[in-house]
Specification:
39% helix, single chain, Aldehyde Dehydrogenase, Chain A, domain 2, 2 domains, alpha/beta, Aldehyde Dehydrogenase, Chain A, domain 1, 499 residues, six-stranded mixed sheet
């Protein structure tokens, strides 16, 4: 449980916090074989936060060999499901018991507000691990229909050595989406956090060991994507990669698999998710709130952020006025202040990229209706006021490319059919929403929209019990729900001749 602290208390705690900076391999923390490191900058201050071990090819080789050895020994993979369940439940409880520490590590690393990491990110990580722990001994195998002279069974087996490569926007949450089902299924897992957000993931290594997960079954390999991530992607003894990140890097992992051993690849690659508000939406206040939170929460650094507002011309002006009135709620502040809703962007280079898109929007003929300014520059941090782009056409780059920042692009439509056509005219298909009081239109839109999740009269409502993933270039496979086990298991047919 998180303690109730004010901003000064959080700052004081941050000053005395021990930062985990070394790789977690074979049950212990250690440096890389060649001593390589990289430096992490605090996005809220612009100052050095930590010098972190970078795992290169030799370290990946060692960790993969350890994972293979642990898997082949059967000490985890062949353990009774009830025993694996008990260990994972202890792991979940240890995560909960270290909420303040993990949340603080996450906030320092990513710039997201402490009020959110304590109440959303860490609790969600623990809850997901618990959910898969409780599910693992309730999965049944199958007996196929045959004649009387044979028995055919279809059984699940762990795929083997799994590499989970996760992004910096929700490090603990998305790690748990991979770790939960992969460990529950009996795999040995290598977690590669983004170089921008290694600290909380590294702490998970020791908590997993404390819970009783054997050495080599769960390891954490920090490093840059082009070094550590590529070494895992190309490794011939990694059986599966579960990746969340950009489409560009997802394509690289597909290429790595083709170049090496045709390892299984599961990808979640972001989106340009539309929020459709029809002329038949009766509650514009509720819609405006959902639109604002759907794009500006987490500084807009969310893969399924509702970054395209497709609004019927009949309600466009009153809806935009309501959204604009909510901007003060999202004024950037100190991430260690529990009252802050919007923190810092992940790093200065990313802020520059988002600002580039605002300049590009103007060049393309769109208008920055409000917001978009750099703020709190005196802190040295990467802070930006959320923005609304008006007069956007769907062919503009700001309507087609994932900005991954607090930028709402507003497109006008005339009727639901045009809205659906605009929504589907995208290379992405991760999520979408529709706001309407007409139940027939809601069902029609939900069926027509090419997206992995469609929300009706809400946005970003979720549960670990529902699958998450996308169509088109938003990825391959699904996180969350029982369907996630499909990524981390093989199905074996055993045919027994009784004749």
């Amino acid at each position: 449980m998180a303690a109730i602290m004010n901003g000064d208390e959080w700052h004081a705690r941050a000053q005395g916090l021990a930062l985990p900076t070394r790789a977690f391999i074979d049950g212990a923390y250690g440096t890389s074989a060649d001593g390589a490191t990289f430096t992490r900058i605090n996005p809220a201050t612009g100052r050095e936060l930590a010098v972190i071990t970078e795992c290169a090819a030799a370290d990946v080789d060692r960790a993969v060999a350890t994972a293979r050895r642990s898997f082949e020994s059967g000490e985890w993979a062949l353990r009774d499901p009830g025993e694996r369940k008990a260990v994972l439940l202890r792991f979940a409880e240890l995560v909960r018991g270290h909420t303040d520490e993990l949340a603080l590590l996450e906030t320092l690393d990513t710039g997201k507000p402490i009020g959110q990491t304590t109440t959303v990110d860490v609790p969600a990580c623990a809850a997901t691990i618990q959910w898969y722990a409780e599910a693992l001994d309730k999965l049944y195998d199958e007996v196929a229909p045959t004649g009387a002279s044979a028995v055919a069974t279809v059984t699940r087996e762990p795929v083997g050595v799994v590499a989970a490569v996760v992004p910096w926007n929700y490090p603990l949450i998305i790690a748990s989406w991979k770790l939960g089902p992969a460990l529950a299924a009996g795999n040995s897992v290598l977690l590669k956090p983004a170089e921008q957000s290694s600290l909380a993931s590294l702490r998970l290594g020791a908590l997993a060991a404390e819970a009783g997960i054997p050495a080599g079954v769960f390891q954490v390999l920090p490093g840059r994507g082009e070094v550590t991530g590529a070494a895992l992607g190309r490794h011939r003894d990694v059986d599966a990669i579960a990746f969340t990140g950009s489409t560009e890097i997802g394509q690289r992992f597909l290429a790595y698999a083709a170049e090496s051993n045709l390892k299984r690849i599961a990808l979640e690659c972001g989106g340009k998710s539309p929020q459709i508000v029809t002329r038949d939406c009766g509650d514009l206040d509720r819609a405006a709130s959902a639109v604002a939170w759907g794009i500006w929460y987490n500084q807009g650094e969310t893969c399924h952020a509702g970054s395209r507002l497709i609004v019927d011309r009949a309600v466009r002006q009153p809806l935009l006025a309501r959204i604009e009135a909510l901007l003060p709620t999202f004024e950037p502040g100190d991430p260690l202040d529990p009252d802050t809703v919007t923190g810092a962007l992940i790093e200065a280079q990313h802020l520059d990229r988002v600002q580039m898109y605002l300049a590009l929007a103007r060049q393309e003929g769109a208008r920055v209706r409000t917001g978009g300014e750099r703020v709190r520059e005196e802190t040295g941090g990467a802070f930006m006021r959320p923005a609304i782009l008006d007069r956007v056409e769907n062919g503009m780059r700001v309507a087609r490319e994932e900005i991954f920042g607090p930028v709402l692009a507003v497109l006008e439509c005339d009727g639901l059919d045009q809205a659906i056509a605009l929504a589907n005219d995208s290379s992405y298909g991760l999520a979408a929403s529709v706001w309407t009081d007409r139940i027939a239109d809601a069902h029609r839109a939900a069926r027509a929209l090419r997206a992995g999740t469609v929300w009706i009269n809400c946005y970003d409502q979720s549960s670990v019990a529902t699958p998450f993933g996308g169509y088109k270039q938003s990825g391959v496979g699904r996180d969350r729900s029982l369907h996630a086990f499909d990524k981390f298991t093989e199905r074996k047919t055993t045919w027994l001749d009784l004749s």
